[in-house]
UniProtKB/TrEMBL annotation:
Coiled-coil intervals: none
CDD domains in the cross-refs: FN3
Species: Phrynocephalus forsythii
Compartmental location: Nucleus
Name assigned to this protein: Fibronectin type-III domain-containing protein
InterPro entries: Bbox_C (IPR003649), COS_domain (IPR017903), E3_ligase_FN3/SPRY (IPR050617), FN3_dom (IPR003961), FN3_sf (IPR036116), Ig-like_fold (IPR013783)
Residues of the Fibronectin type-III domain: 164-221
Keywords, in A-Z order: Coiled coil, Nucleus
UniProt record, GO biological process: regulation of cell division; regulation of mitotic spindle organization
Keyword Nucleus found: yes
Major localisation: nucleus
Amino acid sequence: MEDQKESLRKIITTLAVKNEEIQNFIYLLKQMLQNVEANSDRVQKDLESEFQSLYSLLDELKEGMVMKIKQDRASRTYELQNQLTACSKALETSEELLETANQTLQGAENHDFNQAAKQIKDSVTMAPAFRLSLKAKVTDNMSHLMVDFAQERRILQSLKFLPVPSAPEIDLAESLVADNCVTLAWKMPEEDSKIDHYVLEYRKTNFEGPPRVKEDQPWMV
């Protein structure tokens, strides 16, 4: 009888321990589900923020470069339009002189021919057509404002999530437990300038006693 009681007590203890383990694991799973949702929301917001920063930077750069093209176009248009206007006026004057010269030549027998010819000669000497530079002040070539973002595109295409850092190595010889305080000394297994600290998470694994309510002490997993 006593043997059966003792055996039953052991079974009860075993079941109680196992039930506690299962309860602990259920709580852990629920906590992990909450953490997955919260952490995924956080990293997604961070991702969207980083991309928004890139979009804003690209828009700013684009606006500046478009403005440069517009300014260059306006400057060249102004110079060419001025030359076009001057040439049009000079051509109009030259055509009038040509017509006058032809008419004067046809009336070479007139008594005032010499005077007319001299006037035409003086007019031609002062004609805008002979003071014009027939070379454009600017070119129509805009190749200095061309772009090639192939390299930048490759860089953007290489964007990816940060690699998971290696776990730090705990230096047991330098670590200390005293006065209800734990001091851990650690070092990086490999030099990494991007990491300057770690967040320490811990759990109690050697708890002995009856099942406890995890919500009261969530750090005890």
